[in-house]
Amino acid sequence: MQQLVFATNNRHKLQEVAAKIKGQLTLLTLEDIGCTDEIAETGLTFKANASIKSRHIWDRYKLSCFGDDSGLGIDALNGEPGIYSARYAGTHGNHKANNDKVLANLLGVTNRKAQFRTVISLMWQGEEHFFEGVVAGTIRTEVCGTDGFGYDPIFQPDGYDITFAEMSMEEKNAISHRAIAVEKLIVFLNENAGGLNFTAKILTSC
């Protein structure tokens, strides 16, 4: 049985990917491969950071794997927070502070167009493949909703009158940037791995 590693330290991403895969593969933890590494995201693009993660696991463990990098880009802020989305307010993973900073920076701004972007880097049998997902929307003037994570409470996707944080996981997974990228990954695996009958190892601290 082949193995696939997902290099992430974000449990919300794990939940969303698991829900999207819907049991087509088995999700295991970091303990299974004994990874305790800290992988520094030193790239200047989402693509570069995703590649750093997947290549680190391939180079060290020689296991097929994928890593992703995602973020929010806001037109009026020249694409910020971009690759710094998780630490926009200074502390990594402080979602409230990040949202508050965005809302403060957009105070009085009428152009609130934005987009979420995900890039997945898959190292498959030593070769790298990329899959991208983008969803456009607008930034609300206040926090709305309690589900999701990150900037979900202030991001309203085009064509909807609610934020990601007001959607169920199923609703968000039907349209989100990460879902689009994962769907492309699944298509690739179905075409190149003989279907999704293999084990996926998920890194929870790298």
From TrEMBL:
In this chain, Mg(2+) is annotated as bound at D69
Q: Which UniProt keywords apply?
A: Hydrolase, Magnesium, Metal-binding, Nucleotide metabolism, Nucleotide-binding
**Is Nucleotide-binding given among the entry's keywords?**
yes
Broad EC category:
hydrolase
EC number(s) recorded for this UniProt protein? 3.6.1.66
Which residues act catalytically here?
D69
Residues at which substrate binds: T8, N9, N10, R11, H12, K13, S70, F149, G150, Y151, D152, K172, H177, R178
Do you know which InterPro entries this protein is assigned to?
Answer: dITP/XTP_pyrophosphatase, ITPase-like_fam, RdgB/HAM1
Q: Which cofactor does it need?
A: Mg(2+)
- Asked if the record carries the keyword Coiled coil, the reply is no
State the oligomer form and interacting partners.
Homodimer.
What's its job?
Pyrophosphatase that catalyzes the hydrolysis of nucleoside triphosphates to their monophosphate derivatives, with a high preference for the non-canonical purine nucleotides XTP (xanthosine triphosphate), dITP (deoxyinosine triphosphate) and ITP. Seems to function as a house-cleaning enzyme that removes non-canonical purine nucleotides from the nucleotide pool, thus preventing their incorporation into DNA/RNA and avoiding chromosomal lesions.
List the PANTHER family: INOSINE TRIPHOSPHATE PYROPHOSPHATASE, INOSINE TRIPHOSPHATE PYROPHOSPHATASE/HAM1 PROTEIN
Name of the protein this chain belongs to: dITP/XTP pyrophosphatase
What organism is this sequence from?
Answer: Mucilaginibacter psychrotolerans
